[in-house]
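An example makes the point: we print one protein in full, the chain in one-letter code, the fold tokenised, without further comment:
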Amino acid sequence: MLMFLLAILPILFLVIALTGLKLPGHKACPLAMIITLIEALFIWKQSSIDVITGTLEGFVMAIWPICLVIIAAVFTYNLVVYTKNIEIIKNMLASVSTDKRILVLIIAWGFGAFMEGMAGFGTAVAIPAGILIGLGFEPLFSAMVCLVANTTPVAFGSIGVPEITAASIAGLSSYEIAIYTILQTSIMSVLVPFMVIYMTGRSTGKKGTEAFKGIWIITLMAGLSFTIFQYITARFISPELPSILGSVVCMAVIIILTKLFKINNPDFNIKTEKSITNVDLKQAFIAWSPFIFVLLFLVFTSSLVPIINKPLASVKSSIVIYSGKDAVPYTFAWLSTPGVQIIIAAFIGGLVQRCPVSEIVCVFFKTIKQMSKTIITIMAVIATAKVMGYCGMIQVIADFIVNITGSFYPFVAPFLGSVGTFVTGSATSSSVLFTKLQHSAATVLNMSPTWMVASNIIGSTAGKIISPQSIAVATAATGVVGKESEILTGVIKYYIVFIIVYGLVTYFGIGLI
């Protein structure tokens, strides 16, 4: 019990520091890292060189690829703002609807799921949140609604990496894991659109069911269309593409139903300074060009196009950073990482928008300066996760939970996955940390290993809501760095709903398969 409490101390400190003490992330996370380093040295008796190199590996991973892709995403948005093409994008979105609820469904839920499926690593929060602010939404609301929306799509983020990683570690079929993951997340995938509409209503002073007036069917179909096409994709096409194809269908359904039902509620109209005018195809292409090129680059350089992906992926360097036992070389993918693709795409998009190269470069470096505190936060979080994993603190937490829960373990299995994402900020990293444990627990308890491995993935999607790394991305994208505690306080209740529902689905569902 004592070792468990000591192992979980850095996590407890983070929660208290961010909520109770209301410390900003760039101060709380380094303090949590210091606590972890002290415990690793004096309680877990890890050698100083192992602690130092483990921390260094965390710093390196934070910078490449995580901070790189987040900077790239925010840079893309900042460039569109700088060239003033954000006004055309706002105009186009407002032409679909001026109703805040519809815009939140399209941007935070639909477009956010698309960015998660394509790139992940914070882009699904950073870019949609930036667009919402451009449309006149409050920064704090934009950050929180995008965090809540960026949940179930995370299971298939970055072209399905969490599934592929879990399958390779556990030696299971990625297709089966994908199908079970969708079945387990289906309830929440339908409920998330209702959550974001509820949040939108609260932000405009509406209570209870007032926010759903006139858009019940659209909200329901936003969730159902996404979930159904996720399943069809995983079952018949590929385990890598459910979030991408599901989100495209979802956005189309929302737009079609909005036009069909002629949604127009003055209580939820955005405040537009200019009247809505028609935008021709050329203007639309120029305005959206950075995002269009981001999409094209991410698709054609991904594993879906091996003739391009393999040569790019071969340009890499590997170096052993961690000095401890069973150290694995850290690989720098210089050309195939999403961050590089997004930056190149944004540069091309900026040129299409007739922005001089010198000004594009200036926007890029201003973005790095803007995100300096976020970079500190993420470096500290990833270093903390690395040291906790290497010295055995994560394993102690996991083993304790398995031992005290017994046959009720399936109920808490998703919680374990959420802890992995809370600490690391990544559903993929959560898979790396806990897939073997979930598989072993299922074997010992005579339960389906595939179902239990999938439960870890769905839990990791809930952890995204409250992960300090995700919150850091949200604050950076919305310009509210320092208000991490307010965001965490605002979204933690949604995390609790996710964990309870996921626990019930995992526990009762395992008896049905």
In short: The CA atoms of residues 192 and 303 lie 29 Å apart. The longest helix spans residues 48-82.
